[in-house]
Amino acid sequence: MPKRLTVKAHLTLEELERCYRQARDGVELTRYQTIWLLAQGKQTKDIAAVVGYTPNSIRRLTRQYNQHGPEVLRNRRRNQPGAPTLLTKGQQAQLAQALQKPAPDGEAWNSRRVAEWMSKLLKRPVAVQRGWEYLRLLQKSIEVAQPCHKTEA
User: How far apart (Å, rounded) are the C-alpha atoms in residues 82 and 74?
Assistant: First the structure.
């Protein structure tokens, strides 16, 4: 039989319950609930069934909590700034101006052509998907030439 996990008393049972009930972030709520249930003496497999974490994740969270305290229960992913945009505001304005005219090859703009335009501007390869993202961002729809079918009378 595996050894039962123990939780250091960084917070009392009442404090853990209060933090669990007051948590507004889903990640924090689940982490507080996990530690609260462990502090009550519940088994890891039972907690895993309740919170949806694997037993290994519960062990890892417990180890971190015991070493570093309640700070590890906070969701540090929230409020992260994220990666910078590929094009600056000025470059986006340049692209918006370019989209007002036909593409360099004289055809309608599409994601591939936008990505090629961006590649030349940035002097590095740009994925077609990024071209699509900026095309949509600048509210320019993809124009695809479709053949006209005349109905026979």
Answer: 18
